[in-house]
Amino acid sequence: MDEYILELNHITKIFPGVKALQDVNFQLKRGEIHALMGENGAGKSTFIKVITGVHQPEEGTMKLDGQPVQFKSTRDSQEAGIVCIYQHSTAYPDLSVTENIFLGHEITKGKMKALQWKEMHAKAQELLDRLGADIDSRASMGTLSVAQQQLVEIAKALSSQARIIIMDEPTAALTKRESEELYEYTEKLREGGASIIFISHRFEDMYRLADRVTVLRDAQYIGTWDVDAISNEDMIIAMVGREIKQLFPKRKIEIGEEILKVEKLGRTGYFKDISFDVKKGEIVALTGLVGAGRSEVAETIFGIAQPSEGTIYVDGKEVKVKSPTDATCAGLGLLPEDRQKQALILDWEISKNIGLGNMDRFRDGPWYNKTKESKTAQELAEKMAVKASSIYDKASSLSGGNQQKVVVAKALTSNLKLIIMDEPTKGVDVGAKAAIYEIMGELAEQGYGILLISSEMPEVLGMADRIIVMKSGRITAEFKSEEANQEKILEAAMLGE
Amino acid sequence: MKSSVNILEKNKTKKIFRELGLLIFLIVLCVVFQAINPTFFTWENLADMLRNTSILAILAVGMMMVMITGGIDLSVGAIVALAGMVSALTVQYVPQLPAVVAILIGMGVGIGCGAVNGVLVAKGRIIPIIATLGMMNVFRGLTYLISGSKWVSAHQMSDGFKSIATSGIGPLNTLIIIAVVVVLIFYYFLNYNRTGRYIYAVGSNPESAVITGIKKDRILIMSYTLLGLLTGLAGVLWVAKFASAQGDTATGYEMNVIAACVLGGVSVSGGTGKVGGLLLGVLLLGVLQNALPLINVSTFWEDFIQGIIILVAILLNISVKRRADKNALKRREI
Amino acid sequence: MSKMATLNKRTNVELDRSVLEHKLDPKKFFLQWEWLLVIILVVILIINGSISDYFRGTQVLDATMNFMDKGFMVLAMVFVILLGEIDISVGSTAALCSVIMAIAYNAGMPMELSMVLCLAVGLGCGYINGILIAKCKELPSMIITLATMTIYRGIAYIILEDQASGGFPEWFQYLSWGYVGPIPFSLLMFIILAVVFGLLLHKSVFGRQVYAMGNNETTSRYSGIKVNRNKIIIFTLMGLMAGACALFLTSRMASTRPNVAQGYELDVIAMVVLGGVSTAGGKGNMLGAILAVFIVGYLRYGLGLINISAQVMMIIIGLLLIGSVLASNFLLNKPKALPKK
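The joint structure predicted for all components is written out below.
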């Protein structure tokens, strides 16, 4: 028998205009847990889509059990025993847990192929119990938490007797404890004889689980190591590609008076007791794991949602922010987390998107002045170095980084004092990242206060003057940048009380 | 994760609560009607009510299926008229035609109409409201066209044809029997058949359904076609029952059908809908239509009352859901 | 004028400045849906003219009297559909407006006041729709207006049962039968309102916000657009125009019944969609919809000239609606996905 259950060699995948994967190699040993690491946009997701047959590579070969294979669709890969648990739940929220597990390979009986619900419910319950999951198989999927839904997906993989299980960033939305449980289930899967590809960009996942690790960066294969044999620093260099310091143009900035202060801010069910301030020229990072409530704090300050308690002060004066308009009037801006869904109209030109930031600015009485908009847009787009042929290119034609630059330009049409940046470099390539950091630095230099929400450690450590850590809706620690390091922050984010 | 069990059970009871609430409302309504007019609870009246409701039930089952896929069909009233007219005309010219053949002809017309809707939605990628709104006009126009804008009235129909609506087994009218059979078949289909379940899957998460390998377009076309089939059947029954086929038969009836579905808890965004709840919705409308004249409410109030009930039902649904979400948030520990 | 960030200009980026000067791309300009509509309209006019010797000069203008009432609703429906919403209660609203105006007048209210009441009822119905739609985000506007459609028409039936009401003063007929010079009054009103609505949509800040909301409501909200307020305004406007339609319709028929304007919603939506406004929201313009009003109107008129029955017209309108969506799905744009959940 072959040592490798799955082997991919020299895989290249090209999308119109971009090389999504370039000469990638990957070998999965039988019964191992193999971490696939890389930053956002490194090509991890595309790579698994090649394995599962969603995409067909332009070049390269794939071998299963030493035999060359080609998957034309997910159906092919499923039949070959490969199951993928996707990052974004592919569950059917209205259907029962049982049905989610058995959809596509239901148990039927007789000529009529009647579905055997009793049997399926019992089997599903047995699978869930075997995993030790406290889930009712008759409950509908939509009522479960994200972590529970993932367990159901794992149960589904178990039920289909998958030999290779791919888990795409399963811990991204989980709390520490939930992650711990997930590790256990993952090991149970391995004990059951499956080989597992575990995709993540979290180090703790890799150290806790994986036997070996493969790193992708900028669509390229960087290397494969035994987890025991690679140090933290080497891993970072492999993932980021250069010494982190280069990326962050830390400037010496005079920190001025306070701009924003929130006191005992809370929103039922999301966060509680949040107090901090941001000063002129200061970059304050709000960090923590995904789901800790950071984005919700930002949305509440910006008036998208209303707080259930607490006060917000701008320039020392209490403000009531009931809507984004109120926030902008008070001088607060937000670059939302989901650029494409919350910040841009993809079908619109760059110029119109920039104008959207502050329509009142381009108002002549009741009329909208397009010439004014174009001029301002041109000016801002050039300052932001948006890579496009002109400001009349559609936002959808831009790369992630350039889209983000347009979003920054959009915010700058208003007269702001403080900008909240929610994961500003998510899905942005390394080059554009550097540009965004540079812009951030310049803005701070000019006296803007910046509240940076980020879960990327290097970014937080490299850019912020102060670091506030949240866990499960509360602030658990605050550091000056000199005193902070990755371990301290992670500890506060995962264990802090 | 221990607390989850609790929440789940609460959720379950909440779902049953919805149907229970509807049932209680229905019973209260009946009691009130009975108190005002004691003829309400007579065997004749109840049988009459069920007979009148059976066509609505058949249509509602089909509409529910389409709504589960996340769609809607506004052309059912027009298909009822067209299918009814075609079968009535056939009967007029071939009086000796067996009633069963007339029914089959109506169903055939319905299948054709439904398939057109389905193809427009699935392959033409027209949003369902627009596609079926357009086809509603086409089918209605065709009905007038083939009939030359004339009625087919009682004396032009054979007795065999009319007996579809008057005959019965024992005390049970044929219409009621057909409705019960249809409901049972589709209950089985939607709950115990693989393809039936895929309708739910497509409505619940279309992208996942495609990834899972479900042929979404096929499921969509099938749902609209099945609705067409049921509508064709209903069309023949309608014409037989009223012993007349007209160009404006069942105008606006799609609203009643959709109302029954919405009252019965079928979600307009797709993915959910149960035959049990649906029947309650159908019965509620049936009772109203039957009892309002009995308690001397003018028929001119019917539309208004029906509209208000739909509105109240959907608003209640939302407020119950919002309260549940809010409570779930409050329970979350921070 | 607000302060703007003075950032260092970054190097090595060229954004074509020449585009700021001339924006008219001739290739794009002539490949527009509106040209197709213009051609269709001209063809219909020529055919009408060749069928009937009377279809000349002022007669062409006079023909508009038959369909102008729907045109008023089209103007507002463009906004509704641009939002990605729909309002199927407009026919019922018009019926209710008309019925209330008639009984108010017959109960002794001066005609002028009754007419104001007619518009006010439309406004009120639209406002109720708007509030419900803005507050119940979980529900599609289709379902809400389905309910209010039944209710509004139901009230009209409660008021008038199956009676007709009329007996309006002589001068009330002027609305739909009168002239200003050679131009029918209703056409003139339509043109004025079309210009107002066109400017509102294409030149005003409000119009730009409508396009933004139709394209992406979340982004619009995050960008500080008052999404709910705008929705309520648009549905209220829709109701108001249904009231205006009721005025002209009642004037044209000189009496009213609870079942007037039945099915108008379909005609109105068909015109808007034929005019190139996407049912997914965010795409389309006023000119197309206005052209579509005349296309459908003259088509009906022409079919009437050659004695084609109203029933065939129904079929043609239905096919026109479907054909135009298919054409815009497959010829002009990439296919649109099914409606978002």
